[in-house]
Amino acid sequence: FNPDRVPVGANHPGVGRQIDVLSLTRLTGEANDLNRESVLGRVTLINFWGAWCPPCRAEFPELVALVQKFRDEPRFQFLSVSCGPPGEDDDLEVLREVTEAFVAQHPADFPIYADPGFITRKEVDRVAGFSAYPTTVLLDQDCVVRAVWQGYWRGLDNEIEQTIRQVLRKSRSTDAASN
Question: How is residue 6 annotated by DSSP?
Fold first, then answer.
Protein backbone atom coordinates (compact mmCIF):
# COMPACT_ATOMS: atom_id res chain seq x y z
CA PHE A 1 0.00 0.00 0.00
CA ASN A 2 1.42 3.35 -1.01
CA PRO A 3 -0.02 6.12 1.21
CA ASP A 4 1.30 8.74 -1.23
CA ARG A 5 -0.76 7.30 -4.07
CA VAL A 6 -3.62 9.59 -5.06
CA PRO A 7 -6.90 7.70 -4.56
CA VAL A 8 -7.93 6.60 -8.01
CA GLY A 9 -11.52 5.48 -7.52
CA ALA A 10 -13.00 8.64 -6.00
CA ASN A 11 -11.37 10.78 -8.72
CA HIS A 12 -12.88 8.80 -11.61
CA PRO A 13 -14.84 10.94 -14.12
CA GLY A 14 -17.98 8.84 -13.53
CA VAL A 15 -18.23 9.90 -9.87
CA GLY A 16 -21.43 11.81 -9.17
CA ARG A 17 -23.40 10.21 -12.00
CA GLN A 18 -26.41 8.04 -11.26
CA ILE A 19 -26.98 4.40 -12.17
CA ASP A 20 -30.54 4.21 -13.55
CA VAL A 21 -30.59 0.53 -14.55
CA LEU A 22 -29.42 -2.50 -12.61
CA SER A 23 -30.45 -6.07 -13.36
CA LEU A 24 -28.56 -9.01 -11.88
CA THR A 25 -29.49 -12.69 -11.76
CA ARG A 26 -28.42 -14.95 -8.91
CA LEU A 27 -25.76 -17.40 -10.05
CA THR A 28 -24.68 -19.02 -6.75
CA GLY A 29 -25.72 -18.83 -3.12
CA GLU A 30 -28.93 -17.88 -1.40
CA ALA A 31 -30.14 -14.64 -2.93
CA ASN A 32 -32.84 -13.09 -5.05
CA ASP A 33 -32.33 -11.51 -8.43
CA LEU A 34 -31.66 -7.78 -8.06
CA ASN A 35 -32.81 -4.59 -9.70
CA ARG A 36 -32.09 -0.93 -8.97
CA GLU A 37 -34.89 -0.63 -6.42
CA SER A 38 -33.53 -3.57 -4.42
CA VAL A 39 -30.19 -1.84 -3.83
CA LEU A 40 -31.51 1.63 -2.99
CA GLY A 41 -30.93 2.67 0.62
CA ARG A 42 -27.62 0.82 1.04
CA VAL A 43 -24.05 1.61 0.09
CA THR A 44 -23.29 -0.98 -2.59
CA LEU A 45 -19.94 -2.24 -3.91
CA ILE A 46 -20.30 -4.04 -7.25
CA ASN A 47 -17.35 -6.07 -8.56
CA PHE A 48 -17.44 -7.34 -12.17
CA TRP A 49 -14.93 -10.15 -12.58
CA GLY A 50 -14.31 -13.41 -14.41
CA ALA A 51 -12.71 -16.70 -13.42
CA TRP A 52 -10.79 -16.50 -16.75
CA CYS A 53 -9.15 -13.18 -15.70
CA PRO A 54 -5.79 -13.41 -13.83
CA PRO A 55 -6.11 -9.98 -12.11
CA CYS A 56 -9.66 -10.88 -11.05
CA ARG A 57 -8.46 -14.15 -9.54
CA ALA A 58 -5.72 -12.27 -7.64
CA GLU A 59 -8.20 -9.71 -6.32
CA PHE A 60 -10.94 -12.17 -5.30
CA PRO A 61 -9.50 -13.30 -1.92
CA GLU A 62 -8.83 -9.66 -0.99
CA LEU A 63 -12.46 -8.81 -1.70
CA VAL A 64 -13.61 -11.80 0.38
CA ALA A 65 -11.56 -10.43 3.31
CA LEU A 66 -12.83 -6.89 2.69
CA VAL A 67 -16.47 -8.02 2.73
CA GLN A 68 -15.81 -9.75 6.07
CA LYS A 69 -14.82 -6.39 7.58
CA PHE A 70 -18.27 -4.99 6.72
CA ARG A 71 -20.25 -8.11 7.67
CA ASP A 72 -22.01 -6.39 10.58
CA GLU A 73 -22.77 -3.15 8.70
CA PRO A 74 -26.45 -3.32 7.63
CA ARG A 75 -26.12 -0.24 5.41
CA PHE A 76 -23.53 -1.96 3.18
CA GLN A 77 -23.83 -4.70 0.59
CA PHE A 78 -21.41 -6.37 -1.81
CA LEU A 79 -22.46 -7.63 -5.23
CA SER A 80 -20.05 -10.01 -6.91
CA VAL A 81 -20.84 -10.33 -10.63
CA SER A 82 -19.19 -13.20 -12.50
CA CYS A 83 -18.71 -12.47 -16.21
CA GLY A 84 -17.68 -14.56 -19.19
CA PRO A 85 -14.71 -13.66 -21.39
CA PRO A 86 -14.98 -10.45 -23.47
CA GLY A 87 -16.55 -10.92 -26.87
CA GLU A 88 -18.67 -13.87 -25.73
CA ASP A 89 -22.27 -13.87 -24.60
CA ASP A 90 -22.62 -15.09 -21.03
CA ASP A 91 -24.09 -18.60 -21.20
CA LEU A 92 -25.60 -18.82 -17.70
CA GLU A 93 -25.12 -22.58 -17.28
CA VAL A 94 -21.46 -22.45 -18.36
CA LEU A 95 -20.90 -19.34 -16.25
CA ARG A 96 -22.50 -21.03 -13.21
CA GLU A 97 -20.29 -24.14 -13.62
CA VAL A 98 -17.09 -22.10 -14.03
CA THR A 99 -18.00 -19.82 -11.11
CA GLU A 100 -18.90 -22.71 -8.80
CA ALA A 101 -15.62 -24.45 -9.65
CA PHE A 102 -13.70 -21.24 -8.90
CA VAL A 103 -15.51 -20.64 -5.59
CA ALA A 104 -14.90 -24.27 -4.58
CA GLN A 105 -11.18 -23.43 -4.61
CA HIS A 106 -11.55 -19.83 -3.32
CA PRO A 107 -14.36 -19.94 -0.75
CA ALA A 108 -16.67 -16.97 -0.49
CA ASP A 109 -19.71 -16.71 1.72
CA PHE A 110 -21.61 -14.22 -0.41
CA PRO A 111 -23.89 -14.85 -3.36
CA ILE A 112 -22.53 -14.34 -6.85
CA TYR A 113 -24.61 -12.83 -9.63
CA ALA A 114 -24.61 -12.80 -13.42
CA ASP A 115 -25.42 -9.91 -15.74
CA PRO A 116 -27.42 -11.56 -18.55
CA GLY A 117 -27.63 -9.42 -21.66
CA PHE A 118 -24.91 -7.13 -20.26
CA ILE A 119 -27.70 -4.83 -18.95
CA THR A 120 -25.83 -3.62 -15.86
CA ARG A 121 -22.43 -3.49 -17.59
CA LYS A 122 -23.93 -1.37 -20.39
CA GLU A 123 -25.31 1.04 -17.78
CA VAL A 124 -21.94 1.23 -15.99
CA ASP A 125 -20.32 1.85 -19.39
CA ARG A 126 -22.82 4.65 -20.14
CA VAL A 127 -22.22 6.33 -16.78
CA ALA A 128 -18.54 5.68 -16.10
CA GLY A 129 -16.99 3.68 -18.92
CA PHE A 130 -16.30 -0.04 -18.77
CA SER A 131 -13.02 -1.08 -20.32
CA ALA A 132 -11.36 -3.68 -18.11
CA TYR A 133 -11.84 -6.62 -15.80
CA PRO A 134 -12.08 -6.39 -12.92
CA THR A 135 -14.21 -3.26 -12.68
CA THR A 136 -15.46 -2.26 -9.25
CA VAL A 137 -18.08 0.42 -8.69
CA LEU A 138 -19.12 1.96 -5.36
CA LEU A 139 -22.65 3.36 -5.20
CA ASP A 140 -24.12 5.42 -2.40
CA GLN A 141 -27.59 4.76 -0.99
CA ASP A 142 -29.17 6.68 -3.92
CA CYS A 143 -27.32 4.69 -6.65
CA VAL A 144 -24.96 7.59 -7.30
CA VAL A 145 -21.44 6.51 -8.30
CA ARG A 146 -18.95 7.41 -5.56
CA ALA A 147 -15.90 5.56 -6.94
CA VAL A 148 -14.84 3.40 -9.89
CA TRP A 149 -11.77 1.19 -10.07
CA GLN A 150 -10.75 -0.51 -13.32
CA GLY A 151 -8.13 -3.22 -13.11
CA TYR A 152 -6.34 -4.47 -10.03
CA TRP A 153 -3.16 -3.59 -8.14
CA ARG A 154 -1.75 -4.59 -4.78
CA GLY A 155 -3.20 -2.36 -2.07
CA LEU A 156 -6.35 -1.56 -3.99
CA ASP A 157 -8.44 -3.27 -1.29
CA ASN A 158 -7.18 -0.66 1.22
CA GLU A 159 -8.34 2.19 -1.00
CA ILE A 160 -11.71 0.51 -1.54
CA GLU A 161 -12.13 -0.01 2.22
CA GLN A 162 -11.30 3.63 3.02
CA THR A 163 -13.71 4.86 0.35
CA ILE A 164 -16.54 2.60 1.60
CA ARG A 165 -16.00 3.94 5.14
CA GLN A 166 -16.13 7.56 3.86
CA VAL A 167 -19.37 6.93 1.93
CA LEU A 168 -20.92 5.15 4.92
CA ARG A 169 -20.01 8.14 7.15
CA LYS A 170 -21.61 10.55 4.67
CA SER A 171 -24.72 8.38 4.40
CA ARG A 172 -24.99 8.29 8.21
CA SER A 173 -24.82 12.10 8.41
CA THR A 174 -27.39 12.36 5.59
CA ASP A 175 -29.69 9.97 7.46
CA ALA A 176 -29.32 12.01 10.67
CA ALA A 177 -30.02 15.27 8.84
CA SER A 178 -33.22 13.91 7.28
CA ASN A 179 -34.66 12.66 10.61
Answer: P
